[in-house]
């Protein structure tokens, strides 16, 4: 899918192209492809890849990647997602590409058990073994990789202070918002300034903590009927479906507002009072950086990635992942201490604004490419 290139990595290919690199983007086909081609100045090649484990289709994708690499003869192959990393690193290794970089932007195995965990660990080790360089996108993710000895430590490197693409400080700014779009979003939400809105942005799947979030929201709503929960993201029933009762609550409860994935997330952040992010696993979540730039108080799970951004009771609140009572306690504190939460949000804004602009991240990455190419 071209989703990662079109949105989380937006601008990065064009920056590298404008700073001395001939860039060819590669992904599967998908509905995001027109958006990708609109925003990037680099050419794009479609190679059919699936997100699931599909052995025969995966072998065909490796074959197509080998053909592509032999034709293009790249100096660097850089992969990002788990499936693209596995297939891309194997194909680049077989073609003898000198610099093979895989960015680790999250590890699904962190929430798996049994046979699936063993399979995913094996896949990670193959991917890192075929790579010459492995770039975790957060320090805590690097620590996890080291602790489990998935690869030799000399392959590991953190670019800048973390992230896969930094954050767009011009877009995520309250002063840059279009008042007309704000009014449109207000109309979509039937916005009422007397209410308090909590916002989640992400996929509607189990490992984003949606079950716990809905359960806890229903508890706090019983105490305060002025609360509303906005869930922005698509259901993904084929990969990690939610229980039917949770999906029914999301679709039918009068205080829960579900919207499909949106490219106007900053406007929903503008209208919200809190950002709640109960994910089970992350690499380095851009959405927390975006919420920070919108000066939105954050309550999030204490997991790799999140803890690289939010410091408990200093720049936000953390709770133990998958612990509903812990989420209830921290969310209740946030609702009862609005001034203190805003002070934390202001501190986090200063940190993110000065440390994670995407232009700074891009320059760190460009320098890393040049060092490896020297």
CATH architecture of the largest domain: 3-Layer(aba) Sandwich
Strand order within the widest beta sheet: 8-7-6-9-10-11
How many domains? The number is: 2
The beta-strand count equals: 11
Q: How would a crystallographer describe the biggest sheet?
A: 6 strands, parallel
Helical coverage, percent range:
40-55%
- What portion of residues belong to β-strands? 5-15%
Task: Offer a quick outline of the entry.
The chain has about 375 residues and is α/β, with parallel strands linked by helices. The chain is built from 15 helices and eleven strands.
Topology:
Layout (H helix, E strand, L loop, with lengths): L2 H4 L5 H7 L6 E3 L5 H7 L4 E3 L8 H18 L3 E4 L2 H13 L4 E6 L9 H17 L2 E4 L2 H9 L31 H11 L6 E6 L8 H14 L3 E6 L11 H9 L3 E4 L5 H7 L2 E4 L8 H8 L4 E4 L15 E3 L4 H13 L1 H18 L2 H16 L1
Parallel strand pairs: 1-2, 3-4, 4-5, 6-7, 6-9, 7-8, 9-10, 10-11
Output the keywords.
alpha/beta, 15 helices, 374 residues, 11 strands
Describe this structure in words.
α5 (82-94) links the parallel β3 (76-79) and β4. This protein has 15 helices and eleven strands. It is α/β, with parallel strands linked by helices and 374 residues long. The protein has two domains: 3-166 and 358-373, Glycogen Phosphorylase B (Rossmann fold, 3-Layer(aba) Sandwich); 174-355, Rossmann fold, CATH 3.40.50.
